[in-house]
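Lab notebook, bench 4. We co-purified these components, and the gel suggests they stay together. Before we commit to crystallization screens, I want a quick structural picture of the whole thing.
Request: model the full complex, all chains together.
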Amino acid sequence: MTDSRDYETIPGTYVYDARRGRQGYALNMFCMSLNVAENRRKFKADEAAYLDGFALTEEQRRTVLKRDWIGMLKVGGNIYYTIKIAFCDGLTFQDVASMMSGVSKEEYAKMMLAGGRSAEGNRYKDDAKAGHSRG
Amino acid sequence: MTRKRAIPVARIVAGIACSHVPAIGVAMDRGVTATPYWESLFKGYEPARQWLAKLAPDVAIVVYNDHANAFSLQIIPTFLIGVADRFPIADEGFGPRPVPVVQGHPALAWHLTESLILDEFDMTIANEMPVDHGLTVPLSITCGQPPQWPFPVIPLCVNVVQYPPPTGARCFKLGQAIARAVASFDQDLRVVIYGTGGMSHQLQGERAGLINRDFDKAFLDGMTKDPLALTRITHTEYMREAGSEGVEMVMWHIMRGALDADAAEVYRHYHVPASNTAAGLMIMENRRAT
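Here is the predicted assembly.
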């Protein structure tokens, strides 16, 4: 029994399902390699050369080199994996969350301290488009 | 049963539901828990630490998910049990947390493995694996910073990284099977079970930072009022209402299923934010527990 993919109606969310699993394997396995200190050093020394060791698509390479965090999710990145690139850069989860949601670090931190992004107006793509967001 | 038991058996005495936000571990490791940002979160953990120290369980089963540390996408076990006698601390990409190595309980872990598989829960078995913040942060939250963890731990991993995770209903039934398995182990052990992860949070996409207090409160209340109703929450509902990573809350159902139907809530703490997450903690006790 396959569940309907009704989660596709949630705005600003990239569920790592079978489709993305097929698309993103090599990208995520590159990220996984950064769990080893020596690999982090090699990656930082020459990012493009290090990426040659993994079968990434051109677009996946671009998103990694540009640190296009949303772009990575769109080409099969899984957040628990892509965040390892951020750790390698000395960034925190909150830094990356602010970049993905398109606001400054300060603005994002302020939103979280005020109780986070509201679910109101953020449940369905249509709500978000209609500008009901109070987040 | 009227006949007095001749053989001592293990039993589950309590359950702990607990978020495992990595930043909480980092705050402890860096000694910044008394700062204005963290103070009220950690103050709420104090009663839980006192309760657990007094309970002094013999062993803990910690239900958590690995975050691309012990396992990659190469092999993705839906349910896995760790049977080793020790579990090293994983390097998650910024060096291992400075916390004690986790001691296992191979005798009970192997008993659980056999019992669960014969009870139709097809566990993957791990003889060697590092453990990440999913397991160590709940230990830090509830035990503080001792030189050694106060009890051995059986790690039980659930996949929530690759969609779909197991359903809440399946998790609850696994918890019930764990309770049966523990009760058939012929050693006098008092066992606690942790269900970790959650509560509402979204770490990815333009919608990152989503928090839903109403959902979280209803979920905490439901743990005692109607836990079976909670098991019917679909993955899409978790993701829509509690954020894409809020689906981790399926793991709480394993803890809840392992407790008696009438288990009582003895403590809760809820705080927003811990980094990107709503941090929840709930302690439940079996009424007939001793």
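Chain A touches chain B through 55 residues (CB under 8 Å). Worth comparing against the SEC data before the next meeting. The radius of gyration of chain A is 17 Å.
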